[in-house]
Amino acid sequence: MNRNVKFRGDGSFKILQLTDMHIGGDSNNAKDLKTIALTERLIAGEKPDLIVFTGDLISSLGVQDPAAALRRAIAPAVRSGIPWAHIFGNHDSEENVTREELMEVSREQSGCLSEAGPEDINGTGNYILTIESGKSSSAAAVLYFLDSGAMAPESIGGYEWIHTDQVNWYNEQSLRLQNEHGSLPALAFFHIPLPEYDDVWQHGQVSGNKYEEVCCPKLNSGLFAAMAERGDVAGTFAGHDHDNDYCGTLHGIRLCFGRVTGYNTYGSLERGARIIRLQEGERHFDTWISLG
Description:
alpha/beta, eight-stranded mixed β-sheet, five-stranded mixed β-sheet, 6 helices, 13 strands, 23% strand, globular
């Protein structure tokens, strides 16, 4: 399958960000069925060009067949015929399954554009997608996907961080793309928010809801600084915090939370998704929440 998605004839490109579905092991669970139904409505109503799952598609703890749970989570995207991509969160491979095994399951499904990524750096699911011009086959924008891991070592505590080798990989890919295509506008997707998500709430221009502390890593590995220096990434999109859905601008980069999609998990926000709309040739993007 061609992994390069394409701007529409009118120059637009719409992404549907689904996050924290937390599908479990019981195929008849009422809350999970409600999540799947909402996902189907969101896909049908928004008609995106790309569906992106930003982690915690499943909650694998105590689940005997996590692969089956993952197939249920991604089934609406597979049935839609729309290309889709994903990254993992801290709950996807918590028990009885590895990220590598889940990635194999994903890549067996039609429409999947995800990749395991380089084996010599941390994480499973570090990869890029390019968006082709609506007028030609040349690259017009790029999407970065990074595996933000799960839990930090006990000596540090809290959540894992995007490691230095992954930051180096981003820098290498960004430079390569610039050399090959010139300056391309870019977006980045990961599950666990960067420490700068807390900074932007304190110091940036912000809109949206913040009803819980930002559950970011205790260590800052410098991904945001790398993106600011490279100058290609216009916005980043995370999940993880079910009661946060705000967007804020910090040093020229918009840091956005998705809207929690799954019912079988905590959170007071109405379930939905974030919509992201790019326009070819522009670094700016529009984004809003859709409730299906």
